[in-house]
Known about the structure:
Blueprint: E1 6-11, E2 14-18, H1 20-43, H2 55-83, E3 88-94, E4 97-102, H3 107-136, H4 142-162, H5 170-209, H6 213-239, E5 252-256, H7 261-270, E6 275-280, E7 290-296, H8 297-305, H9 313-316, E8 323-325, H10 331-338, E9 345-348, E10 354-358, H11 360-373
Parallel strand pairs: 2-3, 5-6, 8-9
Antiparallel strand pairs: 1-2, 3-4, 6-7, 9-10
Helix pairs in contact: 1-2, 1-4, 2-3, 2-4, 3-4, 3-5, 5-6, 6-10, 7-8
The protein binds zinc ion.
Zinc ion is lined by residues 73, 77, 117, 162, 170.
Amino acid sequence: MFDRGLTVLKIRGIPIRLHITLLIFLPYVAYVAASQFSLVAASLDIPPEAIRLPPLAWGAILAVGLFVGVLAHELAHSFVALRNGVRVRSITLMMLGGVSQMERDDPEHEAWMAFAGPLMSFGIALGSYGVYRLFTLFPAPAEVGAALLAFAITNAIIGAFNLLPAFPMDGGRVLRGLLLRRLGPVRATRVATAVGRGMAVAFGLFGLLTWNFILVLIAAFVYMGASAEQARSSTRELVRGFPVARFMTDRLGDAYADESPRAVAERLLRNNLVGARVIDEPLGGGEGRREIGVVTVWDLARQLGRGAAPATVGAVMPVDVPRARADEDASRSIEALASGEASAVAVLDGGEHVIGLVTPAEIQRALALAGALGAFRTPGAGG
Ligand SMILES: [Zn+2]
C-alpha cells in the first residue's frame, strides 16, 4: 500500500518518494503550523504588526520544514540499517510521517536502528534551538526567531512521540530490543506488541474524545502493525526447526522467457499449477538452456489485471525472488514472505534448480493441519 509515490531524489542510492496523501495533507499541516507559529510568536511577545510575512506563509514554510525533519529522521534509520548490511528499498514521505522500506534485521540491531530516528529529531531540535539563541543576539527580524523556535519544538515532539513504546513505532522496537536479553525474541515480541496494542487503544480513545482524527488513524496503524508482528512472530516460532521442504509445493511448470504471460497463465490454470520456472533457451534448444527465475500465478494475475501487461513472461518475472535451500530452516522463509515484497520463496535443490515454491497459502495450509493434529510441537519426531 506504500508503493505508490513519486520518486523525487536519491540519497546514497535510496529513492526518496512523496506519497499522494502527503500532497493532499500539506495544506492542513500548513494551517496547523501557522497557528503554532502565531502561538510561539505571541509567547515571545512579538507584536502582530512586527510580523511581515502572513502566518499562513510561515505555516507553509514550517510544513515543508516538518517533512524535511521527518526525512532526516528516516534517513537516520536508513543509514544505521545500511551500516548493519540491511538493504533499504526506499523512503516514502506520507500523510502520517515517513516510512522506510527495508529488509528485516534481527531485533537487537533493529533496536539501535529504531533509536537513531528520534535521536536525529532531538538533534535537529537542539540545533535549531541553538541557532535561535544565536539569533536573539543580533538585530534580526524577530519572526525568523519565532519560526526557528517553532521548528525546534516540532522536531522535539516528533522525537518524543516516536519514542512512545507503541510497537511498531520506534519506541516499541527499542523496548523489544531492551527486553530481548532477558526474555528472548518470542516473549520480548509478545510483550512489546501487547504494550503497542494497549497504547493504540489509548491513542484511539483519546483521539475520539478530542476529535483528533490524525491520532485515531495513527492508533489504527499501530494496532494493525502490532498485531501483524505478533502473528509473524508466532508463525516463525511454529515453523522453526523444520526444513523448508515441509512447506513447499512442487506444483510447478515451465515457461519460456519469450512466451506471452496470458498463454502461461492459461497453462498454469489448466494444469492447476502454482507457478513456473522461467527458462531462457537459445534457438534450437539443447546447450545453453538455463533457468533464469520463477513466476507465480500471483505475479501473472497482478500483471494481467493491470491491463497493459508486458509482452513476455521474462518481463513479468520478478527480479529478486527470495531463495532458500530445501533443507534449510523454514523460519527465514517466513521473514521473506512477511515483508510482503515477494509472493513466494523459490526452493532450490543442492544447486540452482528450482524444485518448488513456499507461498503464504502453503504455510497457512500446513499450519492449519499441524495445529489441528498438534504435529508441530515435537520437532524432528516423525515425518
Ligand atoms: Zn522513526
